[in-house]
Design goal:
By secondary structure, this protein is an alpha/beta fold. It has a single domain, classed as Rossmann fold, CATH 3.40.50. The chain has seven helices and seven strands, in the order βαββαβαβαβαααβ. Strands 3-2-1-4-5-6-7 form a seven-stranded parallel sheet, sandwiched between helices. Helix 1 packs across helix 7. The model has no long low-confidence stretch (mean pLDDT 96). It binds NADP nicotinamide-adenine-dinucleotide phosphate (NAP). NADP nicotinamide-adenine-dinucleotide phosphate (NAP) binds next to helix 1 and helix 5.
């Protein structure tokens, strides 16, 4: 019998994470979500941690107890926060908070989980278009998403010999709460965004989930950055 497969994903209570939980469930994975509120999909196991502070580490046994000693695990670092500030007004505390969730929590989860991840496991990081380029007024987020790509590349090099692969997925604009919060209720802004996308629309979370699933199932994709953005119009 083939080994049980686990998806451990952060931020699957909504958006891209939720769609990913569904995709992996459909493929027969045992799905464990870590976020403050629960994922409402039947069959998903929820762990209610706030990853933006370090308190969750006191209860990490809750996660480890759900896993066998060695398991085939896809670990998806998806939870993130986006704040609005510029280089001129960013506060050190804001930068620390954003990095804690977007970069440090993945590092902490990696060190805990690599102890039980067997051959064939994978670590998939969710970066962003803003992992390789910048726009104004999202300073901390841009810094963190660039860091995530470095984190993925360093992960790849550190895992020589482990038979565990890694990739960073860079979604473009995707129809989720994060996007709605970022854009507000401004239809003109959406039209403007769509006009700069080659396929003329905003991506759906299920499309990004499919890309995450593909990367996790194909070890030939290792140390790689994958854009999932429907094509950007180059000006
Ligand atoms: N949507 C886009 O256009 C877009 C574009 C590029 C990249 N991305 C990236 O894609 C990923 C998913 O984004 P999304 O748009 O799906 O975001 P979303 O709809 O805002 O969902 C974010 C998820 O992260 C969880 N989360 C937030 N703060 C948390 C905390 N302190 N502790 C634990 N979990 C926390 C949320 O759950 P709780 O609130 O329940 O904790 C939620 O499940 C992110 O890494 C984002 O940077 C998104």
């Amino acid at each position: 019998m083939s080994k049980a497969r686990f998806l451990i994903i952060t931020g699957a209570s909504k958006g891209i994470g939720r769609a990913s939980a569904q995709r992996f469930l459909n493929a027969g994975y045992t799905v464990i979500n870590i976020s403050r509120s629960a994922c409402d999909i039947a069959g998903v196991h929820n762990i209610g941690w706030d990853l933006s502070n370090q308190d969750w580490q006191a209860s990490e046994a809750q996660l480890l107890d759900m896993l066998p000693e060695q398991a085939k695990i896809t670990l998806v670092h998806n939870a993130a926060v986006m704040t609005k500030e510029t280089v001129a007004d960013i506060r050190a505390d804001t930068l620390r908070d954003v990095l804690e969730l977007n970069v440090v929590a993945p590092a902490r989860l990696n060190t805990r989980l690599l102890k039980v991840m067997s051959e064939g496991s994978s670590i998939i990081y969710i970066s962003s278009t803003l992992g390789t380029k910048a726009v104004a007024n999202t300073h901390a987020y841009v810094v963190s998403k660039h860091a995530v790509i470095g984190q993925m590349r360093a992960t790849c090099q550190d895992l020589v010999g482990r038979q565990i692969h890694t990739a960073a997925i860079c979604p473009g604009f995707t129809e989720t709460e994060m996007l709605s919060e970022h854009l507000g209720a401004n239809p003109e802004m959406r039209a403007q965004i769509s006009a700069n996308i080659v396929l003329g629309r905003i991506a759906q979370p299920a499309e990004i989930a499919e890309t995450i699933f593909f990367a996790s199932e194909n070890p030939v994709i290792n140390g790689t950055v994958i854009d999932a953005n429907l094509g950007q119009v180059e000006n």
